[in-house]
Amino acid sequence: MSGEHPAFLWRNPEPKRSYEVVIVGGGGHGLATAYYLAKEHGITDVAVIERGWLAGGNVTRNTTIIRSNYLWDESAAIYEHALQLWEGLEAELDYDLLFSQRGVLNLAHTLSDVREGVRRVCANKLNGVDAEWLEPAEVQEVCPILDVSPHVRYPVLGATFQPRGGIARHENVAWGYARAADALGVDLLQGCEVTGIDVAGGRAVAVETTRGRLAAGTVALVAAGHSSVLAAMADVRLPVQTHPLQALVSELYEKVLDTVVMSNAVHVYVSQAHKGELVMGAGIDSYNSYAQRGSFHVIERQLAAAIELFPIFAGARVLRTWAGIVDVCPDASPIVGLTPVERLYVNCGWGTGGFKATPASGWTFAWTIAHGEPHELNAPFALGRFVSGALIDEHGAAAVAH
Amino acid sequence: MLQLECPWCGPRDEVEFSYGGQAAVAYPVDPSALSDEEWAAFLFVRDNPKGPFAERWVHTHGCRRWFDVVRDTVTHEIHVRRD
């Protein structure tokens, strides 16, 4: 998009009485789903309904890290598909996303971290994902402000490096998809909270909302932390638990960090945004919560970890902290696809790592909605894996910083 | 940070405790009699309410006592403790 930024990126239409597809959740994944439904499948009689405002949830609360260096084949396939879509997304949406492939380091601090990292690099290469193993001196070259001396409590013993990984400006991603979906005819309905899902003869037929009843050929739930609440309206129980996930930014500083650094063992991940703020996150708060806030000790520990790794951060000042609520599956992998209710589809469970997946999540979910069956990339992430036992255990592979 | 009341040690900060998830999930009386769906439901599916939630905590860094509370997942207010 060239020239002046327009005052409005999408219409604010009145709801129609019925839609071919109603997508519940106006976050990144919901908006991407709507866009690809219209773009790839010609399905434009679509509403995205959002309880609050577009992009007010996790899509603008994450730490914007993009990578595809997952261990398991199923994960590598869908996240690498996402990364390839990211690589063409600014051109496709004609919108500046500040997508920056500055590389992602995943540090190893113990012998088992080293073994896991080397194994994951090999697995990534076999799956066509760019990955390198770096020794401490090479890590230092990529990230000079990192303390790689052997005298710290958890010395850096090496790192995996994915050069194609990076960051993007998350609100632009949501706005870019919203604008493009709107232009293709999708109705984006804000301030529209679902109060019920009508099921007749085992088939979802409508959603009841605070802006009236919307008849629907297909109802697609893409509501992250509220997925359990929505699914319960159709008597579907999902194996997800909702937790706070906190993040923080510092005040603005001159550029000191031009890559993304993640550490599972010390447990912090950090990048420096384009404006100059240091963006940091860590793990979830342990307890279930829908409150979009967490406990302060979690912030305290991630800052302690950051200062251990980056001594120059000791003088940095926190500007603000916040939380989103994330839906976590037992195997830390998402649920994408069909439910026991006909024409009721779900896309949830992305937990702490959904932002990077946004394009592929929407692209594959749109395919599933259009065809009424799983796509080969999301088929392994079907709800049925909890019955078959074919879990995709990324807890072990991606650990906590996910 | 939450403050939880341990039945033995009294009110303590959250950092002394570990979370145990939903309370009162009974182990199946005869696991081998369950279908795959029933076993999966027992193993992987827990309540995830928005509002009051009966959940378990353990005083890991204290007396190691397990206990239940009913905590609101929206306000974080703790309503009831069951020993």
Model description:
The complex is a heterodimer of chains A (402) and B (83). Chain A is globular. Chain A has helices spanning 28-41, 73-93, 111-126, 136-142, 170-183, 227-232, 296-309, 358-371, 385-388, 394-398, and strands at residues 18-24, 46-49, 65-66, 104-108, 132-134, 158-162, 166-167, 187-189, 194-200, 203-209, 212-221, 241-252, 260-263, 268-272, 277-284, 318-328, 335-338, 344-348. Chain A starts with 17 loop residues before the first strand and ends with a helix. In chain A, helix 1 (28-41) runs parallel beside helix 5 and helix 1 packs across helix 8. Chain A is built from ten helices and 18 strands. With 402 residues, chain A is of the alpha/beta class. The model of chain A has no long low-confidence stretch (mean pLDDT 95). Chain B is mainly beta and 83 residues long. Chain B has one helix and six strands; from the N terminus they run E-E-E-H-E-E-E. Chain B has one helix at residues 36-44, and strands at 3-6, 10-13, 18-22, 52-58, 66-72, 78-82. In chain B, strands 3-4-5-6 form a four-stranded antiparallel sheet, with no helix packed on it. The longest helix of chain B has 9 residues, at 36-44. The model of chain B has no long low-confidence stretch (mean pLDDT 95). Classes of the chains: A alpha/beta (402), B mainly beta (83). Chains A and B meet through helix 9 of A and strand 3 and helix 1 of B.
